[in-house]
């Protein structure tokens, strides 16, 4: 089954949105396979965002990610990478639809509350980076009520 890496950024943690965000993924029917609250060091944040290292906003982005604890998660389910991106909404909150996390809770691109992997390949890389000791292997007893 497909997995994605989701991270609630420091603004989301500070604003008390952890429960709300977890709830949206849970209610959809996805399964939580990994969860930890952690503070990351600058080199780790730079590694996570290495594909954006040439962007003018890179340093500000890294400052943002290391500015407080983040909630790192692995969610599992059918099409969870693409559907997770839809639940999160467009990168710029001014373009995120109402009903999405960024559409409902964010105003600025540099304070957009949440990260979600943008491809299955990147999800695998990000899960390996953030959960080097692996995740929890379990199956919800609701599985047959969610999948036909
Ligand atoms: P994504 O988070 O929706 O996948 P990316 O383009 O991968 O979007 O950018 C990563 C993060 O970098 C964004 O979520 C946002 O926090 C930040 N970011 C992207 N574009 C800008 C910008 O133009 N100014 C400031 N921050 C930006």
TrEMBL record:
Which positions does UniProt annotate for ATP binding?
Answer: 9, 57, 85, 91, 102, 112
Q: Which cofactor does it need?
A: Mg(2+)
Q: Pfam families per the record? A: NDK (PF00334)
SMART domains from the UniProt entry? NDK
Q: Name one GO molecular function term.
A: ATP binding
Cite the EC number. 2.7.4.6
The chain positions of domain Nucleoside diphosphate kinase-like read 1-138
Under the heading PROSITE patterns, the entry gives: NDPK (PS00469), NDPK_LIKE (PS51374)
Single Gene Ontology BP annotation: CTP biosynthetic process
| Catalytic residues in the record | 115 (pros-phosphohistidine intermediate)
Keyword annotations for this protein, in alphabetical order, are:
ATP-binding, Kinase, Nucleotide-binding, Transferase
Taxonomically, the superkingdom here is: Eukaryota
Which catalytic reaction applies to this protein?
Answer: a 2'-deoxyribonucleoside 5'-diphosphate + ATP = a 2'-deoxyribonucleoside 5'-triphosphate + ADP; a ribonucleoside 5'-diphosphate + ATP = a ribonucleoside 5'-triphosphate + ADP
Its family remark reads: Belongs to the NDK family.
Designated name of the protein: Nucleoside diphosphate kinase
Source organism per UniProt: Hevea brasiliensis
Highest classification ranks of the organism:
Eukaryota, Viridiplantae, Streptophyta, Embryophyta, Tracheophyta
Q: Which gene encodes it?
A: NDK2
